Amino acid sequence: MVSTFIQLLLSGAIAGSVYALLAIGLVLIHNGTGVVNFGFGDQLMVGVYILVFAQQFLGLALPPAILVAVIVSGLLGLAIQSLVMTPLRNRPVLIPIVATIAIGAALREGVRAFMGPNPWPVPFLLSTSPYRIGGISIVPSDLAILGTAIVIMACLYVFFEFTRYGQAILAACANPTGALIVGIPAGTTTTGIWVLSSMLAAIAGIVIAPLTTLTPDIGLIAIKGFAAAVLGGFASLPGAVVGGILLGIIEALAGYYISSAMKDIVSYAILIGVIVLLPSGLFNRVSVRKV
Amino acid sequence: MVTRREILKVAGGAMVLVATKSAYAADATGVTDDKIKLGILGDLTGHAAHWGTGNLAGGTLAFEEINAAGGINGRKLEWISVDSESSAPKGIAGFKRLVDQEKVFAIFGPTSSAVGVPLLKTMSSSSVPIFIPTFSSPLITNPPVKNIFRSGTLNDADQGRIIADYVAGISKKHSIAIMRQSDEYGKNGATNVSNRLKEIGNVKISEEQFNASDTDFTSQLLRIRESDADIMVVYGYPAPSAIVMRQAKQLGLPVQIVGSTATASRTYAATVGKEAVGTRSMTTTRYLPEGDSPEIVKFRKAFEARFPELARQTRPEATDQLAYHGAKTLIEGLRRAGRDLNREGLIKALEGLKDFETGIAEPTTFGPDRREGNRSGFVLEIKEDLSRTVLPKAYSAI
Questions:
Q1: Quick check: A213 and B243 CB within 8 A?
Q2: pLDDT by residue (tens digit) across B282-330?
Q3: Rounded to whole angstroms, what are the CA distances from A173 to A236, A288, B3, B187?
């Protein structure tokens, strides 16, 4: 049935935009610092808990609570960069990657100890009442996720492609010494990336958490973000978005037309196929280093 | 008709009980003239911390209360808590620490199937009485093990049976869909429901599965819509179950939703939102922690005063309630065992409990070959204002 197919495409795209938001954050950190941030999902989780804390215990209305959550998350990114990543900057890349895992676990258990293990309700930004058009349910709160993913991707794309600061960040990541010679301070740009990605994590969490339910383990969905990022090439912001949405749609179609038990098997088989046939992902250019 | 397998199962259980009897006689490890030392084992961190923190809080509250009331037969309770970190190896290490180093008399916990089931062999080969108030794997009590008792909670086998009896009774189309999590929890639960429905007969069963970390369930829900079911049983953890219930309403599925006990928490309706209205869940007891019976009100006030940091998290929850009920039941066993306390005496005293009431959860009955204290359940429904009400009928798995 056509309406069923369209419903699956729409729902898959919504789920995929959750993955896309996660993938964007991962790609941003990777592009800007060279580190794969395995604690990104937990930074996202912390951002939403700050929102809940601001609302429930400080009595703030939703807009200022969001502002507080985003600012405090930015400060968290600053702290991670200053206290952990800077001291590790000259160590092999595996060390800071392992550090991100440790930071994630510490954030997760810290929040569990302070806010408890139970789910907390998070307010939806838009209505959850569906509009039914031709047998298709369209939920405004779900569309907010898709919209947020696209807007963030567009802003970051413009930032990195068309601004001097964005170009400076990419240059500092690609060649810190060369960037320093031409006057780009690598430390400042790296700090900027950590602050920015942490703020993005909070924004992503605030739109995702009402849908997915907020618990200290919400960050575990970042694994799908990794899959989306890999599909998109891990260095490409548009690739992250398209990879995420594609993954969501594949899951939805496989779950319906094959079986729900086979959903992940089919999705990840396609992912492996892409990695084998296109090692740089769907959107990433093969990088060539001249020596 | 009693099958050969059932006879062998009971005989096997009896052999376990008899074979280990000698290890308990006059064993009063952890008991002094003025103290009884207990261990509390539970997941205080990790994904199962919800149950472990409840175990610790409920146990602590009951133990402090009995100490304030003068103790048990002239002795005060002393306890040490160990975190099993939602990990089976940590649970085994924690259990051994309590038994070998801390020399406790009895253990309250563990608190999750993921830790308790791998611990079963270690627990059953020890002589330490173990009292479990929370988790639901039927393997813990069937076949019965001499030193392991469980109260309050409804095991997954009994829960599956009760859910099946309930939904078969309300399904007009005799078509029931089971939406279950893909792990052992969902698989075992769904199998129990499905097997009982097959016993009942004349019911069409369809089954779909999901991962605990999934965020979209449209494909499964659309398949269920096509199955023409009028009941959908959701067997999964609270977070994915909440999304399933919300999306089912948003897609306009014409089904009555019935969730497992995992969806019977106080904050669940608020987590789902207005789409939770009319959904139902299994619950292990007629008493809700937010209820107004005198015993519950007293418990809630005492809990909130003792644990303000947990009260801030909308607790007490069912897990706190079951732990408090379990601790009071264990205390009753210790009281009945008398001043001349030893492990054999405690086990005999617990075996003698019949319909023991605390007013906090369902009455507890043990026996020489019965270690499952509660075998009944109820159905709760979410009302228009997102408050909860327990439907009056009790369902028994016996």
A1: yes
A2: 999 999 999 999 999 999 999 999 999 999 989 999 999 999 999 999 9
A3: 14, 15, 71, 47
C-beta of residue A144 within 8 angstroms of C-beta of residue A125: yes
Q: Do B216 and A252 touch (CB under 8 A)?
A: yes
Tokens 């569309």 appear where? A143
CB contact at 8 A, B259 and B186: no
Q: Token pair of B67, please?
A: 């100490």
What is the average pLDDT across A116-141?
90
| B→A interface, C-beta within 8 Å | 45-47, 49-50, 53, 182, 208-211, 213, 215-216, 218-220, 222-223, 238-240, 242-243, 246, 250-252, 265, 267-268, 270-271, 273-275, 310, 312-315, 317
Range with the poorest average pLDDT among B41-45, B235-239, B281-285:
B235-239
For B37, the 3-state DSSP assignment is strand
- Which DSSP state fits B370? B
ipTM: 0.84
DSSP output for B125-156: TS---EEE-S---GGGTSS--TTEEE-SS--H
Report chain A residues whose CB lies below 8 A from the CB of B50: 116-118
Separation of alpha carbons A13 and A143, rounded Å: 9
* Mean pLDDT computed over every residue of chain B: 92
Question: What is residue A108's DSSP assignment?
Answer: H
Residue of A14, A112, A218 lying closest to B45 (CB–CB)? A112
Nearest chain B residue to A56, by CA: B312
Residues B107, B30: Cα–Cα separation, whole Å = 11
Helices (H) and strands (E) in chain B, counts: 13, 13
At B181, is the secondary structure helix, strand, or coil?
strand
The helix or strand, by DSSP H or E, that contains position A210, with its residue range, turns out to be helix A186-212
Of the pLDDT bands very low, low, confident and very high (cuts 50, 70, 90), residue A179 is confident
Q: For a pLDDT cut of 70, what percent of chain A falls above it?
A: 97
Q: Element (H or E) spanning B225, and its range?
A: helix B218-227
**Three-state SS at B279:** coil
* Residue that wins the pLDDT comparison between B145 and A161: B145
